[in-house]
Here is the input.
Amino acid sequence: MADQSLQVQEKKELVPKGEKTFPARYYVPVTDIYETEDALTVVMEVPGVDRNDIEVKVENDQLSIEARIDFSKYEGMEPLHTEYNVGHFARTFALSQVIDQQQIGASLEDGVLTLRLKKVQKAQPRQITIQ
Amino acid sequence: MAFVFTDPFETLVNFQRALDQLRDSSWLDAGPSGHGVFPPLNVFRKGHDVVVVAEVPGVKKSDLRIEAKSRTFRIAGTRTVAPQGTASAHRRERRGGSFDRTITLPIEIDADGVKAECRDGILALYLPRAERDRPRAIAID
Here is the structure.
């Protein structure tokens, strides 16, 4: 079936709000965002990025993720055929107030970055029992 | 008579894609078969050998199958985009599914010497050129 096969996913180049100070290609990482009762989960694809080259920042209610590729792995290789471009990844999300900025968990597995953003206690729905 | 509904746009898009691929490059053409031809591949040359690189984020090593024989190699696998249980999805951009691609190279490869490496969502295939296929330097008498 057509919907069973993996579709092509064109890499979208990032159009930054502020210009970068150094010239480099940036791409928008493909992202899934899920919400549960107590947390937001951000799942992001950053293939080829080492865990030390990922920067996750929360500032002014903005979650920004920057992941850099190590281009030295491509040294001495002469491209013969290319179907995709290689570049760093960057993406920014505006967070709502409900995120506990102190409790953000991150893990990286097989090029997939998973961020767990805990909601602030008061933002969680609370069941009130009637006496 | 059995009537199978196919989305005309889907068919058209697939056809367009096939045409584009044909036009884009003569390098990896004449691939005998495949379905869900993605993820895209980059091919590099390193000395005599060929290195094929693909971005496969979220694909486990155990879900990848690689085969090689003389001029062709095959990459097949499945990507699972884990559903998050009861969570509601705000954004769904990642795509899962299975893919299978067979590619014919213009050089002969030494199937026994093929090395595959999968790290951080990048699959790298080292395809050594077969000894008998390498160019020989001819000394002039």
In short: Chain B is about 10% helix and 40% strand.
